[in-house]
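JOB MANIFEST
job_type = single_chain_structure
chain_count = 1
residues = 591
[input]
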Amino acid sequence: MIYNTYQTKIEELQIQINLLKKKGNFCLFGKCLFFFSSVVSCFLYFRYSHILFIVLSILLFVAYLIVYALDNIYQKRIAQLELIKSVCKREISCLGGDFSSLPSGEKYKDLQHEYSYDLDLFGNNSVFHRINRCITQIGSDKLAYRLMNLSHDKKEILANQIAIEELASLFDWRIRFMAHPFITTDFTVISRFFMEDRRSCYFIKSIIPYVCVALTVLFLFMGIVGLLTWHYFVGMFLFNLCCSSLFLKTLTIADLNVQKIHKEFTSYIDVLEHLHHTVFKSERLSLLQNNLFEGKNCLKAFQQLSKILNAFDQRSSPILYVLLNGLILFDVFLIKKVRFWKITYFSDVEQWLYSIAEMDVLVSWGTYAFNHPDNVVAEILPDDAKDFFQAINLYHPFLDYGKAVPNSFTLGKKRVAIATGANMAGKSTFLRAIGVNYVLACNGVPVCAQSFKFSVATLFTSMRTTDDLSKDISFFSAELIRLKSLIQHIRSHELTLIILDEILKGTNSRDKLKGSIVFLREITQYNMSALIATHDLELAKLEEENSKIYSNYCFDVELSENITYSYKISNGVARNLNASYLLTNMLKGIK
C-alpha cells in the first residue's frame, strides 16, 4: 500500500512535469517570436520613421519579457517537481531495502558508547541509515545525537509522539520538505563569517564614512558644473580607495566563507518559506514554528542576509571594485551592514538553526512512521509500575513485517532475565530487537510490535567487545573495561536497562561461570533491569537461588535430520544445543 502511494505520486508528478514542459515549449516559441518581431518592428521604424513601429516594437519586447519570466517560473517548477519525484523514487528503493542513496552515518560510530555500536545504530544498513532523511547537516547531527542520548522527559517523548504522528499524515508536505537540496552549513561556518577585524571597529561605527561619501558626491557635482577643479574629486576618490583597502583582508576572508554559505542560505530561505505557510496542530511543531517566526522573524532575517551576501558578488570585478569603493566606500558600508545584521540577529541564529534541525529530525521520524504503518506508538508506564517493559509480538526493525518471528516478553524492575539457547536460535537478534525498539520508543517513534509499554531509563549494552592491539588491549581486558563502565553507569543513574550477550567470553568456562555469577550479583544491588543471553546453562541455576530476581528463558531447537529453529522465546532452560551436532554433520560431509 505504501509503495502504491509513492508510485501514484510519481505518476501524478510526471503528468504535471509533462504539462509544464509543453508550456515551456510554447514559451520558447513565444520568446523567439516576440523577440524577432520586436527587432523587425524596430528595423521598420528606422526605415520608415513611423511611430507605430516603435510602439509595436516596445510592446513586443514587453511581451517577450513576460514570456521569458513565465518560462523561468515553469522551469523552476519543473526542477522542483523533479526533486519531489526523486524523493518518491528514493523512498520506493528504501521500501525495497536499498538505502545506498542515503548517508550511512559511519562517522557517528562510537565503539565506547553505552549502546550505539552494539545495536547497529550507525554504519551501512544501520538504524540511522534506514531512518535519516535530514536535509541539513545540523539536522543529521541532531538525529545522531537523539539516537545516542535518550530522552528521560516523559512530556518530551509524548510531544514527539504527537508531532511524529502529525508529520506522518502530511504526506505531500513531507516529501516537498525532503526535496530541498542538502544544506551543509553549520553554526561554526556562520560564526566564522561574522568574525570582525577589531582594529577597524571605530572607523566603521563613526560617521566618517558618511562624510567621505557626501564630500565625494559633492566634489563630483561641483566638478561637473565647473565650480571646483577635478583635483578635489580625484583626491576624495583616492582617499576612499585607501580607506577601503584597510578592510580588504577582512572582506577577503569573508569572501571565502560567503562562497560556501551563500547558495545554502538561499536553500534555508526556501525551507523557511515552506515552514512558514504551514499550520501545525501539535504543540511540538507549533512551538518550533513560533521559535522561527515569532518575535524576530527568521525568514526576514535570512532574506536580509541573502541580500548582503549577494552584494559580495558585485565586488568581484576589479573595475567595479575601484568605482564602487572610490565613489561610495562600498566595502566599508558592506561591513557596516554585516555588523548591523550581526547586532540585530546573530544572537538568535543558533536557536533558529536548532529549531530547523529539530524539525528536520521530526520529518525523518515522521517518514519512518509513514513507511511502517504496522508499527505502534509505545506507551510509557507509570513510575510505580512493577514491570520495566511489556512487549507483545515484538520484532527487530531490520526484519520485514510478516516475515519476522515476533516474540512477547515482559521484564520486571530489578529483575534479571537469563536467556539460554542454541547457536543461531535467535538470542542475539531478540536482544537487539529490544534495544533498538527501546531507542525508538524513547524518541517517540512507533516501534515494531503489536504493543510496547516501557519505563523511562538509561540503556547500557555489552554485546560486541573487541580487542585493540594498537593500545595493547586484549579481548578479555576490553571485556573487563566494558563491564567496569557498566557498573559505573548504573551506580550514577536512577534506573538502567542492561542488555548483555555472553558475559566474559574471553576466559575458560569454569572461570567464566564464577565471574558471571559475581557480576550478576553485583548489578542486582542497584536499580536496574537486565536481559542476559548465555550458552552457559549453569548460569540458569541462579533462578533456584533467588527466583524473585532471576528468571530463565530459552530459545530451543528441534534436532533431527534438519534442525528446526522456532526463534520463539519461552520459559525455562534450553534442552538442545546444536554446536557439536552441526560440527559432526559438517565433518561427515567432508570427503
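[summary]
The mean pLDDT is 84.
The first strand starts at residue 379 and ends at 380.
exit_status = 0
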